[in-house]
């Protein structure tokens, strides 16, 4: 029996359009490509969500990886929260699930200063029963530790949970722990899949 719906946040409940955000600066193409590779496309981007380093330490890592564009990297990083905006369906979806009697949680790779910067776009969290962000436990999906932290914090049974995430590796990890899963593609498909899983 499904009692709990667990959501990823990025690209499921909020947009993360870093490509359009970076393009808005109208840097030369070569510079745009270099900055993308040194920041958003780099494995170092995980440091933003992991929560072990300060904003200044992460900024310096990005700058050191591409010193030729140091000033512009600092500018891009200073306002990167602008690429995160809430989807129009988000609050309605959560409210609808709550009205149907489900407990609703979030489990997301999300950084501390990202959270602070995008607080207005995360106002749907107030509708939810709680959740875990990666910076709080210094651990990223798909590491089983972050999933276990959610189960333990809210006394959840994995087999009573549906996990919705856009990342296949995160979905695989959730399955191994016993959760029902939906690989998110778009709102309407996910809603239909959720109805099937919940026998609606």
UniProtKB/TrEMBL annotation:
What's the domain of life for this entry? Bacteria
- A single Pfam family, by name? Hydrolase
Protein known as: HAD family phosphatase
Q: Which organism is it from?
A: Faecalicatena fissicatena
Q: What is the lineage of its organism?
A: Bacteria, Bacillati, Bacillota, Clostridia, Lachnospirales
């Amino acid at each position: 029996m499904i009692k709990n719906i667990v959501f990823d946040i990025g690209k499921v409940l909020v947009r993360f359009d870093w490509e359009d955000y970076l393009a808005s600066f109208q840097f030369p193409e070569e510079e745009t490509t270099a900055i993308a590779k040194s920041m958003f496309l780099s494995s170092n981007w995980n440091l933003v969500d992991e929560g072990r380093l300060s904003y200044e330490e992460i900024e310096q890592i990005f700058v050191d990886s591409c010193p030729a564009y140091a000033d512009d990297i600092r500018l891009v990083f200073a306002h990167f929260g602008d690429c995160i905006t809430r989807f129009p369906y988000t609050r309605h979806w959560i409210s609808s699930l709550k009205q149907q009697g489900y407990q609703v949680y979030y489990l997301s790779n999300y950084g501390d200063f990202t959270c602070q910067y995008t607080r207005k776009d995360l106002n749907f969290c107030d509708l939810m029963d709680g959740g875990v962000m990666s910076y709080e436990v210094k651990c990223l999906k798909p590491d089983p530790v972050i999933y276990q932290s959610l189960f333990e914090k809210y006394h959840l049974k994995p087999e009573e949970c549906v996990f919705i995430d856009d990342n296949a590796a995160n979905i695989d990890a959730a399955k191994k722990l016993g959760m029902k899963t939906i690989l998110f593609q778009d709102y309407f498909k996910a809603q239909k899949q959720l109805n099937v899983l919940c026998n609606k």
